[in-house]
């Protein structure tokens, strides 16, 4: 006899009328599906899921879906932030069946007990506990990835990133702040050049696209608003490999490097960043072994991604994985 059968039999021994109700309740009880994340994988999964057949609960620290390939365009005003985002509640409203959404971060997955522990990050003045847990029958882990800093000192404290919509909006404000600061009359020319030196670390698609977007933003818009400092701007792209966009065909890489050369974007390949401070970025030239530092006004870090800690802990735990779907 199965465990569920034992429960029904126990209910029958207590009350003859209780068994049909208990059986009926178990028979039609929906399986609980918990989805972690509102990115590409999470929203795509919900799109194809028959939500009327399951009790679906969605957890994410952001209450919107973002079209991340256009984040560099948001930083420079090519597109508006609202144009590349869609509120999650608008998405789930279009689905048949009820989906519960909770704006919170999953901090731990207890696979042994089929439970996730979550924490919301609202204003501390709000009333009530921010911690809660959810039980599941099926778990979809679609948390995405985080920026890979390679444990480089100073990156988290002194660099900008391009992973979230808020990152793009913050970066746009910081670029304009650099121009405003460089326009202060008490600064020397060297200090102005430093404030207007924009460094992009990482020669992949995100770094290259941002450098190109930033160049166009400066040449087409900002130089007209800040004509006094227009000749002091410099953009540097640092790449550890021998070429930028080295994951693509060599012709694409060569074309991009030639285009950057025409646009006076300084591309430094074969250089590995070893430290970032609030005023300088230190790198090691692989071919010569030399260590050099350059001043900067702003650094954008786009060197790739890594697994989030909660996912690392999840896969490292002792679990069967029989009822888990992990999405990239």
UniProtKB/TrEMBL annotation:
Cellular compartments annotated: Mitochondrion inner membrane; Peroxisome
Keywords: FAD, Flavoprotein, Membrane, Mitochondrion, Mitochondrion inner membrane, NAD, Oxidoreductase, Peroxisome
Recorded GO MF terms: NADH dehydrogenase activity
Catalytic reaction equation(s): a ubiquinone + NADH + H(+) = a ubiquinol + NAD(+)
RNA-binding among keywords: no
InterPro entries (alphabetical): FAD/NAD-bd_sf, FAD/NAD-binding_dom, NDH-2
Domain of life according to the entry: Eukaryota
Gene Ontology CC annotation, any one: peroxisome
Membrane disposition: Peripheral membrane protein
Segments forming domain FAD/NAD(P)-binding: 32-311
Family membership noted in the UniProt record: Belongs to the NADH dehydrogenase family.
Stated name of the protein: FAD/NAD(P)-binding domain-containing protein
Species whose genome carries this gene: Salix viminalis (Common osier)
């Amino acid at each position: 006899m199965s465990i569920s059968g034992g429960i029904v039999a126990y209910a029958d021994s207590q009350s003859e009328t209780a068994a049909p109700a208990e059986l009926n309740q178990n028979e039609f009880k929906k399986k609980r599906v918990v989805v972690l994340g509102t990115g590409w994988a999470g929203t795509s999964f919900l799109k194809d899921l028959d939500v009327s057949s399951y009790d679906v609960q969605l957890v994410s620290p952001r209450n919107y879906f973002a079209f991340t390939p256009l984040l560099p365009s948001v930083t420079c005003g090519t597109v508006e932030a609202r144009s590349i985002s869609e509120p999650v509640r608008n998405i789930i409203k279009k689905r048949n069946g009820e989906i519960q959404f909770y704006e919170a971060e999953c901090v731990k997955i207890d696979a042994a007990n089929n439970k996730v522990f979550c924490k919301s990050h609202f204003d501390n003045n709000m009333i009530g506990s921010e911690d809660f847990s959810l039980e599941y029958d099926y778990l979809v882990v679609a948390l995405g990835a985080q920026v890979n800093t390679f444990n480089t000192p100073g990156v988290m404290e002194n660099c900008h990133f391009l992973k979230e919509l808020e990152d793009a909006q913050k970066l746009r404000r910081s670029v304009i702040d650099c121009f405003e600061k460089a326009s202060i009359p008490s600064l020397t020319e060297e200090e102005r050049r430093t404030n207007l030196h924009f460094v992009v670390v990482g020669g992949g698609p995100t770094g290259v696209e941002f450098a190109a977007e930033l160049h166009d933003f400066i040449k087409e818009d900002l130089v007209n608003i800040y004509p006094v400092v227009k000749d002091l701007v410099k953009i540097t792209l640092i790449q550890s490999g021998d070429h930028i966009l080295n994951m693509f065909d060599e012709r694409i890489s060569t074309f991009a490097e030639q285009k950057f050369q025409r646009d006076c974007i300084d591309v430094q390949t074969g250089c590995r960043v070893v430290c970032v401070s609030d005023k300088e970025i230190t790198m090691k030239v692989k071919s010569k072994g030399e260590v050099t530092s350059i001043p900067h006004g702003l650094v954008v870090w786009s060197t790739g991604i890594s697994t989030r800690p909660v996912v690392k802990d999840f896969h490292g735990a002792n679990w069967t994985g029989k009822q888990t779907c992990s999405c990239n």
